[in-house]
Structure formats: C-alpha cells, structure tokens
Design a protein that fits this description.
globular, 257 residues, 4 helices, alpha/beta, single chain, Pectate Lyase C-like
Length: 257
C-alpha cells in the first residue's frame, strides 16, 4: 500500500510541475520562461518515462512563430540537442523529434542520436545547419525544408526511410560519407550551391526525381545494386563483406542515380 501511495504522489507531483511549467512558458517575462524550461528539463531527467512529453513541449515551443524571443529559442534548441547526445551526461534515448514548420537559427544536431523519427517538414533553417554524425533510428522527413545557409550532414546515419522531397538548399549541402539505410528521395530538391555526396552509402532505392543539378558531386560514392538505379558504371571489387560496389562514374538519367 505504501508503494502504491508513493507512486500516486510522485505522479501527482509530476502533473503539478508540468502544468506549472507550461503556464510559465506563456509568461511575457523571459526569466519566468527560462525557469519553466529548466523545470521541465529537470523533470525529464528524473522521469525517463516522461521524456517524450518534455521533448514534445520543447518542439512545440520551437514550432511557434518566431518573435522577439530569439535568445530563448536558441536556449530551447540547445537544451534539446544536449539531451540527444549520447556522449554527454543526461542523454535521453527513445524519443522522436517533430519540428514541422519550425524556424530555427544556427540549428545544431551534430553528434546527436534520435532513436525515433525526425521530422523537419517545411522548416526554415537560418544560418548554418549542422547534422554531422547525427544518427536517426526511425524515419527522417525534411520535405519542403529550406536551408538558407550551408547544410552539414557528413557521416550522418539514417536508419529508416529518408525524405528530402522539395527541400531547398540555397548554399552548399555536404552529405559526405553519410549512410542511407532505407529508401531515400530527393525528388524536386533544389541545390543552389554544391551538393557533395562523396563516400555515401545508399542501401535502398534512391530517387532524385525528374531533374538534377550540375553541382552534384559524387566522387566514388558507394551504392548497393537495387532496382531503380540507372547510368552507374561500377568496378567489380566489393568493399568488405557487405557487398557494396564502388562507383567510379555516375550519370543521372531519368531522374535516378
């Protein structure tokens, strides 16, 4: 009976702290909102089963229209990223991140691990966007995402399907040595600068739609043979024991690599 009562009291305390923090997030005074964020962070650190709910609040805040709270938005993004880095204390595993239509400045998920899905559909990224060494365990969706500055995705690992349909890269996009384990689509994506895919691994079908950019650089990218690839000239050597074939030259034909 004691354990049941203790558990109920703990749950009630979480509900109270959560509700109070949500109220303070709407306070016009920035110190109150910062305090609310730190309260939510502390609750998530103590209650692993509540972390997805806390992450959802952080994401919801970042999805709100950007106003004069720029420094606070940077704080929210930094808190979120800090808890997604397994190399740092306080890592929160098992969560998904939904930043659909968010406006994000200098967004940095480098070295993060998102065990669930990552959604950035129609998000607007201002300043450099850094996703180096990011690992996403579930689906990744960046449909219609706009990158106004350079996008850095070297060595990122996308374990599920990855969608970059209609994404716009106004500056350079660096995908060097990234791994795409599922079906990957860049249909109608626009590359305003160079797009570097050197050393990438595509383990599923990859689709660049009905157009391509003359700025796409491949430089010995690696691909698994699968239906849908066209115009690829391969050598006979394999890499390790996983059956990749090294691509020496790549042409884009009919919108597919």
């Amino acid at each position: 009976m004691f354990r049941a009562n203790d558990s109920a009291a703990t749950g009630l305390r979480f509900t109270e702290l959560y509700a109070e923090a949500l109220d303070r997030l709407g306070d016009p005074r920035q110190p109150m909102r910062v305090g609310a964020l730190r309260t939510l962070e502390a609750v998530g650190q103590d209650r692993p089963e509540r972390r997805q709910a806390i992450v959802d609040v952080f994401c919801a805040y970042l999805r709100m229209p950007a106003g004069e709270d720029g420094p606070l938005r940077l704080t929210v993004a930094r808190i979120l990223a800090d808890h997604l880095r397994p190399s740092a204390p306080g890592f929160w595993g098992g969560v998904s991140v939904d930043l659909t239509a968010a406006t994000l400045a200098d967004f940095d998920l480098s070295g993060c691990r998102i065990d669930g899905g990552l959604r950035l559909d129609y998000a607007v990224l201002l300043g450099p966007a850094t996703f180096r060494d990011l690992v996403v365990g579930g689906p990744t969706s960046l449909r219609g995402t706009t990158f106004h500055d350079h996008a850095w995705l070297e060595r990122a690992v996308f374990c599920g399907p990855a969608r970059f349909d209609a994404a716009t890269f106004h500056a350079d996009a660096w995908f060097g040595e990234a791994t795409f384990a599922g079906r990957t689509t860049f249909a109608a994506a626009e590359f305003g600068g160079h797009a570097w895919f050197g050393g990438c691994s595509f383990r599923g079908q990859v689709d660049f739609g009905d157009k391509h950019s003359s700025h796409l650089w491949w430089d010995r990218g690696r691909y698994v043979r699968c239906p849908g690839y066209y115009g690829v000239t391969e050598t006979d050597d394999t890499i390790g024991d996983i059956g990749y074939r090294r691509v020496e030259t790549v042409e884009v034909k009919d919108g597919r690599v």
